[in-house]
Specification:
Bound molecules: carboxymethyl coenzyme *A
Largest sheet: 3 strands, antiparallel
Number of strands: 6
Oligomer: single chain
Structural class: mainly alpha
């Protein structure tokens, strides 16, 4: 491996150090390029820019590989559960029995939402977008737990175990409360239950009729949350890091990540996929209209649940979730015509030159909605489910930023394309 990469601009040669990651990923360290040459690298969307070093998740988009802390996603999907994987993602190792118990206890002890905070819901119209509610409620946690959210890394990190468990547990509880608020249902109080069962209780129990645990449902929920636990420097995780890099506390940084996730090109795609499948079903269409529209090049007509900023191969999460769909429906004794439509659409797209030449494959959002739907979760809550699953990844990323003594504030450069210097024109002289 060379030590330096040489960049020649006019007659000047600039040496940039070469870096390698633990999986052999190669980079050119351009941190001093501007100082040494006056040039910056232009990389709109940062698609070819390494913004950090991170030990959390390894993703090889060309080969469809995803590993958390070294463990392949397929093994975690088959053998782990959400809370254990959350611990792994955040702390770097699979927990021992004692660590797992302590973490589970912390999650249970911090599942509630303060009565005063519950009153915030009164201010939200029933049709407020769930992700908008979630972002603002999570930001509000900083007001209810000010000692965990001081915007002082050293102080906040001392209480990280508590704030991390609070964030995971309360985002889950808030997700269920948002569901009940939009339906005009009374809130349920969290119980001393495992993480996923508690969520199902918070969602579906009635005041005099507790939700009865169905192991298959718990298992499916565990799988789907686990599959979302982290995904390298995606838009929302990079947002959490960016906001965190300013010194912002965990809750504020998470709220920003939730905002980033809500967009239809990111987490919001899971809702859009379901709407697309439903409309194909309702119109007795075969999906060709959506495929034809997607090929037109407009961002708003993209085939939702297809393509990925990094994968140029099958998204391994889509493989696992796609296979799980049929099994989950079978175990629950349900069928879903949208699953057949999704299979058909996938096959049609995978045979189409437009998708083949651009290496566009189904992503995590293509099949996840079928499972959410089978669990009784309404479409407008799908992205909130993604947020519940992704919380561990965001937290791990915030922690890396907060605990890096050499970390700089995230502050990209730009190429300015606006007007050059001109003089102020008084209003009565403006054309
Ligand atoms: N449908 C039609 N065309 C597409 C799609 C799609 N779903 N995705 C990409 N393309 C086209 C794109 O227009 C470009 O075409 P051209 O070369 O003619 O200009 C080409 O394929 C290459 O695009 P890209 O550079 O791979 O895409 P990107 O990095 O700009 O965008 C993406 C990645 C995920 C935003 C995009 O694939 C997309 O909009 N997909 C649909 C939304 C979606 O499913 N999002 C969930 C992503 S996975 C979960 C998550 O992490 O949030």
């Amino acid at each position: 491996m060379p030590k330096n990469a040489l960049l020649k601009i006019d007659d000047k040669e600039i040496a940039c150090p070469v870096m390698t990651g633990s999986e052999g990923e190669k980079a050119i360290d351009a941190r001093n390029l501007r100082k040494d040459s006056g040039y910056i690298f232009y990389d709109q969307g940062y698609g070819n820019t390494g913004s950090c070093e991170s030990a959390i998740t390894y993703l090889d988009g060309d080969n469809g590989i995803l590993r958390h802390r070294g463990y392949p996603i397929e093994q975690l999907a088959a053998r782990s559960e959400f809370v254990e994987t959350a611990y792994l993602v955040i702390y770097g190792e699979l927990p021992t029995k004692t660590q797992r118990k302590k973490f589970g206890d912390l999650l249970r002890q911090n599942a509630h939402i303060e009565p005063q905070m519950q009153r915030l819901f009164e201010g939200y119209p029933k049709d407020t977008p769930p992700m908008a509610m979630l972002a603002s409620l999570v930001a509000s946690l900083a007001g209810y737990y000010p000692d965990l959210a001081t915007n002082n890394f050293e102080h906040d990190l001392k209480q990280f175990d508590l704030s991390a468990a609070m964030a995971i547990s309360k985002i889950r509880t808030l997700g269920a409360m948002i569901y009940r608020h939009t339906r005009g249902l009374p809130f349920m109080h969290p119980k001393d239950l495992p993480f996923c069962d508690n969520f199902l209780h918070l969602m579906f129990s009635e005041p005099y009729h507790d939700y009865a645990v169905i192991p298959e449902v718990t298992q499916a929920l565990n799988l789907i949350l686990l599959m979302h636990a982290d995904h390298e420097q995606n838009c929302s995780s990079a947002t959490v890091r960016m906001v965190g890099s300013s010194g912002a506390n965990l809750f504020t940084s998470l709220a920003a990540g939730i905002g980033a996730l809500s967009g239809p090109l990111h987490g919001g795609a899971n809702m859009a996929v379901m709407q697309m499948l439903q409309s194909i079903h309702d119109e007795h269409d075969d999906g060709s209209r959506f495929i034809a529209a997607a090929k037109g090049g407009s961002k708003s007509n993209r085939l939702m649940g297809f393509g990925h900023a990094v994968y140029r191969n099958f998204d391994p999460r889509a493989k696992v979730i796609g296979e799980a769909c049929g099994l989950v429906l079978k175990k629950l004794g349900k069928s879903d015509p949208l699953l057949d439509i999704a299979h058909h659409l996938e096959q049609a797209a995978l045979k189409d030159d437009y998708f083949i030449s651009r290496k566009l494959y189904p992503n995590v959002d293509f099949y996840s909605g079928i499972i959410f739907r089978a669990l009784g979760i309404p479409t407008n809550l799908f992205t909130v489910m993604f947020a519940i699953g992704r919380a561990p990844g965001w937290i791990a990323n915030w922690r890396e930023v907060a605990s890096n003594p050499k970390g700089r504030i995230y502050r990209p450069r730009q190429i300015y394309t606006g007007p050059v210097k001109r003089d102020y024109v008084p209003m009565d002289q403006r054309g």
